[in-house]
Amino acid sequence: MRPGSVAVVVLDPDIPLWDLYELGITCTVFGIPQPDLAPTWYDLRLCAARPAASRAAAGFVLRTDHGLDDLVDADTVIVPSVPDECARNGEELPPELLDALRAASERGARVVSLCTGAFALAAAGLLDGRRATSHWMYTDLLARRYPEVLVDDSVLYVDDGDVLTSAGLTAGLDLCLHLVRSDLGAHVANQLARRMVVPAHRPGGQSPFIELPVPETDDDSLAPVLQWATERLDQPLTVDDLAKRAGMSPRTFFRRLRSATGSTPLRWLLHQRLAHARGLLEATTLPVDQVSQRSGLGTAANLRRHFTLHIGVSPTEYRRSFLSPRAGQEESGPRP
């Protein structure tokens, strides 16, 4: 099987160090032949919006003779990222890039984005009506700017056939290995992953990496009761308890909390208990049943159910990924 040509878009003439990671991923996976794994490898080309020298923030220079016209006839087109002012501030992307992406797609190319590269695919109209993802810090922006895109912030990558998108940074590597698996088979992808010292396939999605802070509110009257509740997450708490503490009727408290945080009281409590459980799993070696009790989620089975449903992985898998090297039995916060 011939894996074909891969055109990688180099959009910014001044490449931020943050964006070098995704660019490096594509070059490592698709640009280094592996003759003992596959007789033919990918034909990689870097296609710059302005063919010339691109200077990275670290001071070194990337040179390519390929322009955007050279990506139109590629088998796979990858946009690793877009400049932050385009993703965050809504500055327009070069029309010639969007035209080239559309032309490549119409020709039958597989079009791929890593991290904020999804903004380029969305601007070109290639994500309309499709499920897609991006780095979790940008998914809300992507959804608001392109409401016709079905944005999923919980996954590492989305394979929608001829259009694929990934979350940020290392999730881009997950998607690149997925492409190799699709093109050259599981054995080649697994061996390549071993050489890169990364998992061939990671469980879960990007939900474990999304922060779960206490929702901010401009309603100062709610702040004391919310703080009081977060200090007693291990105790049974009802809407009536919270409303009484706030000096309101349950109906008024429900309405005020919904208006201030966008969440119902019970959903807010679950959100805080999951956040506390995550903190315990990261900072302590407490058994899972004690973590569930101290976070107010009851049994270990209940903790596992909520973790799988809302975080996307089991508590054990989460701890394996995020446990601090200095973690011990000690912990602060609510206690039974």
UniProtKB/TrEMBL annotation:
Look up keyword Transit peptide and say if it applies.
Answer: no
* GO MF annotations in UniProt: DNA-binding transcription factor activity; sequence-specific DNA binding
Q: Which organism is it from?
A: Streptoalloteichus hindustanus
Tell me the protein's name.
Transcriptional regulator GlxA family, contains an amidase domain and an AraC-type DNA-binding HTH domain
Keyword terms? DNA-binding, Transcription, Transcription regulation
Gene3D superfamilies under this entry?
Answer: 3.40.50.880, Homeodomain-like (1.10.10.60)
Q: By its UniProt entry, which InterPro entries does this protein fall under?
A: Class_I_gatase-like (IPR029062), DJ-1/PfpI (IPR002818), Homeodomain-like_sf (IPR009057), HTH_AraC (IPR018060), HTH_AraC-typ_CS (IPR018062), INH-QAR (IPR052158)
- All copies of the HTH araC/xylS-type domain together span 223-321
